[in-house]
Amino acid sequence: MQYQISGHQIDVGAALSTHVEVELSGVVEKYSQRPTDAQVVFSRSGHEYVCECTVHLSTGLTAQAKAHATEIYAAFDACSEKMDKQLRRYKRRLKDHHRDRVEPVELLGASSYILASEELAEDAEPETLQPIIVAEMETKIPSLSVGEAVMQMELAGAPVLVFRNEGKEALNVVYRRDDGNIGWIDP
Question: Cβ neighbours of residue 46 under 8 Å, at least 6 residues apart?
């Protein structure tokens, strides 16, 4: 497994890097036999350290965790515990579905845009109805079953996930509703 351990305006020493590799490999290999790479980023938020961890699995799914603590090692340990919990749930769901994905998830390329927010006074009218594009990026849309899409959305901690439904070859959306349930849009 490849590790990318970095600090955002923080020096990450050899001791911390070794600690991260040893602990994270133990967590990931316990639940997933085929991880591909992991990215761990440390940063500061006020007086706290923030640890963000992303693990890509060979099935194409991604697990993410984020934690805050007053000490850098404590921040990583809390993040590692969250990752452990997510991967344990992922493994349990795979066993519950009695199905292991043998082939990697197929990814479809798409464009993603960031639009400028228009903060106007209450009485002011916008000059144009066309939004201003701030950034354009390439994104990947995975080809998943609905169950895998829900699992991926929860692993990533995202409020919404766009995916290509394997059964129908059409784009679908799963999202977290305000009442806590999960919605599924199938056009």
Answer: none
- C-alpha pair distances (Å), 146 with each of 17, 103, 155, 183: 37, 17, 14, 11
Q: HSE of 55 in the Cβ direction (CA atoms, 13 Å)?
A: 28
Global pTM value: 0.58
Domain locations along the chain:
2-96, 107-185
User: What is the Cα–Cα distance from 94 to 179, expressed in whole angstroms?
Assistant: 26
**Domain with residues 2-96, CATH architecture:** 2-Layer Sandwich (3.30)
Distance (Å, whole) CA 20 – CA 29: 14
> Which tens digit of pLDDT belongs to each residue from 58-112?
777 778 889 999 999 999 999 999 988 888 877 776 655 445 556 667 777 888 8
